[in-house]
Amino acid sequence: MNLGYATLTNSRVSGLSAHSHIGGSNPMNQTTPSRSGRRRSRLVLGAMVAVIALLAALLGACGSNDSDSDSAGEITLENAFGTSKIPASPKRILAVSEADLNAAQALGVTPSIVAEYKEFPFNTWTTDALTKGGADPERIWTGTSYEIRTEDVVKARPDLILAVGSWYMDDTYKQLSKIAPVVTFPKPFTSPSDVDAPTFLRTVAKALGKEKEAETVIADTDAKAAQWRKDNPSVVGKTAALAVQYIGGGLSNDSVEPYVANYLKMFGLVPPPSTDPAKPSMEDLSSLDRDILILNFYADRKEITENSVFKNLAVVRDGRTIENKALSEAAGTPTYLNMNYVLDNAGVRDALTAAAGKVKS
Asked: Which of 103, 134, 179, 234 would staple 356 via disulfide (CB 3.0–4.6 Å)?
């Protein structure tokens, strides 16, 4: 199950923090140290600096190639937060989101380390690709949130961090970039929800030296989508909304987000205007009353399905709603891996054509 871009909370990062301080005592209560005490403090401080420098060197050696390397083949990638120097042949690649993992998988690369969460295991398309490739990458952060813990990144010893799909770059970019080069979304994008699928894939591809492969994936997927629309003309031109009930209640109209709107267009569907409310009130759900309404529930679905306003929507009364996990969850992080998965999925095709067939002309 994947909550998708639009649902991640603004959790704070555990580990490095701009507000951290060393020691727990109140400096106002400290006495002035003697001259010998100050000398001992300087000696201890000097030793601490030496140890930290040694640890940093050891971590750098662990995260790099076994042999000495120079800057030959190194590339520079600018992003929304700075500039990263990407090594020519990274060995220990960390994907901090399933979307980053999927982008690498679509290019034929399986990162050495991936983030997976106990309550939100990988989607079917991800596990299928891992199984097919016989890959078993290291897992980190198997906790109860999407929080990035810098101490776990240090322990993982990556030499490249893929974080195009991470919502936490404004909090963690500086911290993570001290551990390894970070690949994240470029300017003018300000969050993962703004990044279109081609830009996402091309960004990862450039870091991995797979730019030609990326263009092949994009062209092949575009051709497959065009063929899908040709084979299912009844779906093309139908208006559609995708709404999700997240924990906390209510419905979120995710289809007003650019990445979800583009995903719906892949099937020939017409998404709602971006000006529609992203969080419609339960007293006015008219913005969801389209030809087709795709639904996903993560909480008590009866709070929605038993609501009188919801039940009186024409799209609900006519049975033009769709509850298909593959269809709705792929929209949360549209990458070329899951886009191909849903285009090939007979259940997705049958659900869309069935709903489209009930639209009154």
From this structure: 234
Q: Mean pLDDT for each consecutive 10-residue tract of the chain (361 residues)?
A: 39 31 30 33 38 41 38 85 93 94 96 85 93 90 68 93 90 93 94 90 96 98 98 98 91 94 97 96 97 96 96 98 96 93 98 97 77
Are 180 and 59 a contacting pair, CB within 8 Å?
Answer: no
Which ranges in the chain are annotated with CATH 3.40.50.1980?
A: 75-211, 233-357
Q: Which residues pair with 292 in a beta bridge?
A: 240
CATH superfamily of 233-357: Nitrogenase molybdenum iron protein domain (3.40.50.1980)
Q: What CATH architecture applies to the domain 75-211?
A: 3-Layer(aba) Sandwich (3.40)
- Residues with Cβ < 8 Å from 37, sequence gap 6 or more? none
Assess contact for 163 and 103: CB atoms under 8 A: no
